[in-house]
Amino acid sequence: MKIIILGTAYPYRGGLAAFNERLANEFQKQGHEVEIYTFTLQYPNFLFPGKTQYSPDPAPDHLTIFRKVHSCNPFNWLKVGREIARKRPDVLIFAYWMSFMAPCMGTIARKVHRNGHTKNIALVHNMIPHEPNLLDKFLPPYFVKSMDGFMALSESVVHDIERFDKRSCPKRFSPHPIYDHYGERLQREQALSLLQLSPDSRYVLFFGFIRGYKGLDLLLEAFADNRLKEDGVKLIVAGEFYGDPSPYLNQIKKLGIEDRVVLCTDFIPDGEVNRYFSAADIVAQPYKTATQSGVTQIAFHFEKPMLVTNVGGLPEIVPDGKIGYVVEPDPASIADALHRFFSEHKQEEFEANVVEEKKKYAWSRFTETMEELF
Q1: How many CA atoms lie within 13 A of 323 on its CB side?
Q2: What percent of the chain has a predicted confidence (pLDDT) above 70?
């Protein structure tokens, strides 16, 4: 088939770009012709409180990426829609994650539909954002009504789609595949040496953009538990603040845990991701809300145990007591589980189970489900 993916990709950075590029690679591996259309302007700076939207890494090899889409310019949407319609792809995949993109993607989809050939498929990461606003009630229906089918990465997102789509459009679910492009797992001592950390401590990793819904404040509160201090456990926070860092820095100081929190709060380049996961004993995702998370799939790649909270699609991915823990999103539950992990020496058992569990999340399974939808 001829497939076009419209969404975030290089030179933009982050999990969505990584997902779209990895998906394109998988389709190419299976013999399809693939192009990616990404943004000249993804969104205005006021919607992105991080340091930069752009990747410091080189462009990915073997991918055809066109920077054509301006998210705020309706004339551009019509132009891009006409261009893609003339190419007559069999499938146009819209990688959708926030309501702000609904007018842009919905308009392009309507123009492409006019060629009478292309199927518009929504690959929905979030139907309702983690930090919702009034626009989330009014904009999504415009996008949803222009789609011929929907692909979701968690059951909870399927239910969210059904709130907006009352038609009989086909909907499929397949879990987020493993992010397997971050290099090999390093020896623990090597990773700790690269990060200039002591091998005498044990480490919990919080990874990714630091946003309110991700619950870092809950994890910091949990680290005030004396049991974790006695267990010799430290917290690595690896990721960029997506907003004002002062509430977290003040919390760390107030709790008196400065000597047990390692802050690595610049954006982590792809080539350094393996250092942090290889150094960690367990990966914590204390999210307050969630659909699914790419961090779990990086942890699967590096065969690391996980602690997740009982929100959204996270419990679907992490079997409690087998490869990690599913806990309630409160500091006491988080601290209890972490203490249990270290005091009961669960790492070796959980890592062995992760090796088996990760087989469910191959990219070939994900694209097989997408092709059924096509």
Answers
A1: 25
A2: 97
Instruction: Report the C-alpha gap between 337 and 339 in whole angstroms.
Output: 5
Q: Which of helix, strand or coil describes residue 336?
A: helix
Give the chain's end-to-end CA distance (angstroms, integer).
Answer: 10
Closest by CA position to 268, among listed 345, 205, 177: 205
pLDDT at 215 (0 to 100): 95
pLDDT given at position 275: 97
DSSP string, 13-47: -SHHHHHHHHHHHHHHHTT-EEEEEEEEE-S-GGG
DSSP line for 66-128: EEEEETT-HHHHHHHHHHHHHH--SEEEEEE--GGGHHHHHHHHHHHHTTSSPEEEEEES-SS
Length of the chain: 374
Encode 270-326 in three state secondary structure.
HHHHHHHHHHCCEEEECCCCCCCCHHHHHHHHCCCCEEEECCCCHHHHCCECCCEEE
Question: How many whole angstroms from its chain centre is CA 22?
Answer: 13
| Rounded Cα gap, residues 93 and 89, in angstroms | 10
80-104 per-position pLDDT tens digit:
999 999 999 999 999 999 999 999 9
Cα(298)–Cα(317) distance, rounded to whole angstroms?
Answer: 12
